[in-house]
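Catalogue entry: protein

Sequence with per-residue tokens
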Amino acid sequence: MLDTPFRPSAVDIANRRAHADPRDPAFFQDPYAFYSAVHAGSPAFFWEDYGHWCFAGFRQVSALLRDKRFGRQILHVATREELGLPEPKAHTAHFDLTEKYSLLTLEPPAHTRLRTLVNRAFVSRHVEHLRPRIVALANEMIDSFEGQDSVDLITAFAAPIPAIVIAEMLGLPAAMAPQLLNWSNRMVAMYMFGVTEDIEHDANRASFDFMAYLRGVIDERRKAPREDLLTHMLTAEHNGTRLTDEEVISTAILLLNAGHEATVHTTGNGVKSILQSGFDPASLFASDAQAAATVEECLRFDAPLHMFTRYALSDLEYEGIAFKKGDTIGLMLGAANRDPLRFDDANSFDPFRGDGANVSFGAGIHFCIGAPLARIELQVAFGELFRRLPNLRIAEEPRYNNVYHFHGLERLMVRW
């Protein structure tokens, strides 16, 4: 066995098994110690706490994200009875409805149709036009707290910017951003390890309220179309078909939930990484190319999403491991980004590295549709923040939220 901070031992190399409780603060505050143990032992292992196989190697994760033998959905190829799955819970019916048509869970051909109708709004040349608005937003946020002694950068800066940008793209008022964030945060809690029934009820209420609000906006758009993403989704056609209201609502909720969640976490994690690295922030944003490289290193070094799951769509074998149809696998994005076989000095933050890459946005057909927008938001947010506040420093020890999958800071207190 290999000794790790998770005593007596977290990784059993001989049997390719590992233990680390995702609810243990010692784990979610620093999962990288566990990842190092896994990489030194077996990057493909059975995670006992989750009850399924996980893959931590960059090569494996990158390949499995593209492997069509695994999918985000399973009930399109099997029944609940066949897989021994329980019936859906009545008290999560509204939440389940928001997931039913989610791009994150659909598989082709439904995924292809939906993504084709939405994708145009997120291509690089289109979102680049949003850069001036993002610059203005970043400066508005800094203006609002610059006169204070210290601030929580997550709530004052990282969270509002992407929420407002997505809201405005959809055609929703910026003033709705706090309420949208409230609904989103309550729904995202459903992805925690060991979700309680109270969380399920609360997420279901948030889902109901979110959908009700969007139905009202959709009714307004039908009467008075606008130049916004919501109108586009209601009117765009693919092979003679249009999105249903349920598909539009699911997509709008996904765009807000996913479109701000990862960006918020990367902003907080990235500022922390930069300030703790010893690099001069001015040098990291001295050019557009270096700003882009710095963002990619932030995404690699402290990823916002650490595990993405897939189902085996049939009985199969992968690298000597036998899977039954319906088995879950975990793709460990955060661990893959620290793979020492792929990156030199993988556990060091180096925005000038020559081997930069990451799987933080996924790969394959489920590659993050909002990646071009997120990259621009991050480049602008970091650049404006360090330009305006060159003496920015951490005011107290940062702590991460107790949500393992979504790896982000609870708060980031800073001074300048």
In short: The longest helix spans residues 245-277. Residues 74 and 312 are 8 Å apart (CA to CA). The longest strand covers residues 308-312.
